[in-house]
């Protein structure tokens, strides 16, 4: 991203400022045009206007019910993932034995396609929230472990020497030096994980659910209500984007020093 | 090589050597170092890159226990980091999430978990002495490299150490800043005498600052010469123009560029 871009005229400046939005609007207009002119049936590719209409045809309370179901599972899975990943990372940093023991297991879990395991988890834990939360957790926790351990290992060795030269207790080395140094890494892990959490919740709903946006999309598709399925998909994408941005806002609010320097 | 001194040895190295690899055939990083440093003496160590200067410093700090010989401070063998040692690293290594003032207080916070109002008062005095009062509430990245390293020095002085170990502290700074901060260090040292072990790549810096200079050979680093710097104090920018200054720098340069490793 070039932050030093200096347009020559005010036209250039306006173009630079609004180019992303204009391009996006243009794409949607083109989509609408293709559907209208080509008379593409709605059950093949619905036009943007049909999708918007379908969105408003569904009652608001129904949307909120599905949204809450998905968001609840995604956020619980994400939270559980943080609760497991961070202590695990700290343990693996502090103990070589623990690192050696657990790392292969983590690799095996990460290498197993969670989508394929999902039906087995449903059999094991039933069709309620616990199995959906576990599926979400399995998808999200690996990036967190990797980012947290990488961050803690990248602490400048001289800071560790400073800690050792003071003969400070090791828990303070972890809390006052290693974890803060890992914050930028942890947040890039969190940004990856929060979008994976939505994927995890949707995968779980595809396997077994009676509500949620993933369930709504699957259900709409099976009844050939394609515009409605698209409306659900776009809603899901917007929620995912908002969650991603929220993680960035939280980082900027709590740890402003950890952001890359602006010019 | 044995150093006979009329003053009492404060830091004493006897037959000190270190091999990082436990295999007895592996090369030594440093070997056969005999050196007595008097209390409040300023000793510089110069030598080519990789000659084990930093290894030497870490052995005095107690961060590294030598595989051969022993280091003692005030007739007590160094077996772990001591409370009366302050270390200044090559990079300032300030914590980016703490203000300058809190960075200076960090060793106390890290070692004991808290600090007292008296400690804060002392911090403010140290910051004043280093000309940093107006930067006390700034974040490290708002400071120039020279200012950051001043904070690093002040931090090392917080616990009022008797021994100050400096590992190429000014090597990341530009030439002008470097000279200025060198004189500032001398001023601080003259007002609060400390035993200083100062590692540097710069021959002129070593001559300008120190009482004696230990010249080390290429790896495995050992003592090539120990030079008394008989330039009068206080030293100023005029010291550089004295003929004796040129003689001493030439002498050291000769040692480093001629491959006359002693038998």
Automatic annotation (TrEMBL), chain A:
InterPro entries: MetI-like, MetI-like_sf. Residues 67-247 form the ABC transmembrane type-1 domain. It is found in: Cell membrane. Pfam families: BPD_transp_1. It is a multi-pass membrane protein. The chain crosses the membrane at residues 12-31, 67-90, 102-127, 133-153, 188-209, 229-255. This is ABC transporter permease. It comes from Marinomonas ostreistagni. The lineage of its organism: Bacteria, Pseudomonadati, Pseudomonadota, Gammaproteobacteria, Oceanospirillales.
